[in-house]
Queue: 3 jobs
Job 1
Amino acid sequence: MIPIFLRWGVPAVVTVLVGTAAAVLGNGTDMPPPDLRARALGALRAAHIDWADVRFDLRDAYLIGTPPSRSALESALTLVADVQGVRSVSPTVAATDASDTFVFRADFDGKAVTLSGRLNTAADLTVLTRAAGVPVTSTARPATDAPQGFADLAGALLGALVTLKNGHAEVIGTTALLSGEAPDAETSAAIAKRLSGFAVKLTITLAAASTPPTPVVTPYAFTVSKAPDGRVATAGTVPNRLLDARFVALAGTSVTNGTTIAEGAPADFAEGAVLAVEALTLLTTGTAMLSGEAWTIKGEARDALSADRLRSLIAIKGKPERWILALNVPIVAAVPAPQPKPKQPAADDSAARAACATSLAALAAQNALVFKPGSATLLDTSNPALDALAADLAACPHADVNVEGHTDTDGEADINLELSVARAEAVIAALIERGVSPDRLYAVGYGETRPIASNDTKSGKQANRRIAFSLVETDAATP
């Protein structure tokens, strides 16, 4: 089985970067067949995957392109991996805005070091392993955008890191961070002296050997907000002070810190908080808030493209079922497009449309399209209904269809409206994957405004959480 290493990020330019010490120092057996790229491209084009290009480093492949969905990327990776002669294919995402920052991390548990993020070359791994002097494991991806002098800086950081009882080192762009628990004051002073000669900005937070117990907070609450003038502020609780410096590096501006340290954070709190700060870079003003384990982002998007990027960022890097988005998108005046000519229905179009409408109504009545609570993620149990829906639409190819999302009255009305649109879009994406032309499908969200049952009962709410369908009215053909 060819190894496929998959990591999602912002869906901008997806670049698969691969390379190991064996590949860099490989012998003649690593030389690729001369037609390897042509055969890989042929496999992609034969599957009608036009968004992806493929490049090779010896026999290790990388993709370049913008995938329309998670499943589209997975399909492209599988196709390339199955081409004879390909050794591996593994994506990492080079994203826009704050997400394209070079990040390198090292964690020390008192016995071994774990590396993650990015490394310039396989040779860097060898240098860092020697500098650590303890067992080192790495999931870091190859990259070419490390700051100048990265190898020397990272080596010094690791050398200092392993003198702690435990700790964390990180390089974010041109900011270097080190935190941990020093066994004594002499070790703390020695680390500061050892790292004082580096030009890269250094933030060191060293805990004393003995510290008072950290309070435990339930439910955990955290807020990060962005003002119209671009200032960013945090409030609530965080598990450690290392996150403060990460927020500054990712936000690209000073951050007013109003947080306190407390335990009880969700297991993936750091990832969620960093994602929230990244999301605010796509807003002119807004707030991202954690309550318990649920995140909510409200605010004004810079433009429609930024709003789409934010939704994709959450869908790919976060857990969509735990994120609620309520975004205002500015309306930009546009030159009216020429009115399209009325569609010319087929001779038997009326009968076909009537049959199509009947089939769609029957399928909608089953209410078999089911989502994860509070999210636009379809459950696998919806697949039979989606297959049947695609088959019904194939039987009436001249009919355009409104896919209509509806919710119950739980939660805020504006969030329910956003959720209903997102669910309609998710159904359309699933139909497109099943061969339905996207030109025929239109997403419409009504939120909680069109109930078909009482929202005072559990069964009524379940009936109101639905996807409905209606045929788009077409003008009659001109004689």
Note: The first strand starts at residue 13 and ends at 15.
Job 2
Amino acid sequence: MEKKHQMHNLIILDESGSMISIKETIIRGFNELNDKSYIYSYV
């Protein structure tokens, strides 16, 4: 039997606005992580 790997993500939303300067970087990184986890789940 092949061992399956699991990935768990913890998403913390910052309502204070203190992270607004890196908003686009965070979104881009999150999207890249999702794309990779989707690919790896079917390999």
Note: The chain is about 45% helix and 0% strand.
Job 3
Amino acid sequence: MPPGPYRCPCCEQEDTLVAERPPPGSDGVCIHCYWQDDLVAFRHPDEVHGNCESLNGWRRQFGKAPLPPA
């Protein structure tokens, strides 16, 4: 698969995640919500890791449903 942009796993906007590989775990950053795609956040979406908020906490800011732990 060619380099992004990809759909952001946090805010779900199309073509906003700038990354070399697809999510999850791409380490790319969304140009819309500024989420840095982190594989650990998908495994533990209610815990804060590399970002300033948990993945589910940040998704709530954008009106998105929380993700279950992987």
Note: The chain has one domain: 1-70.
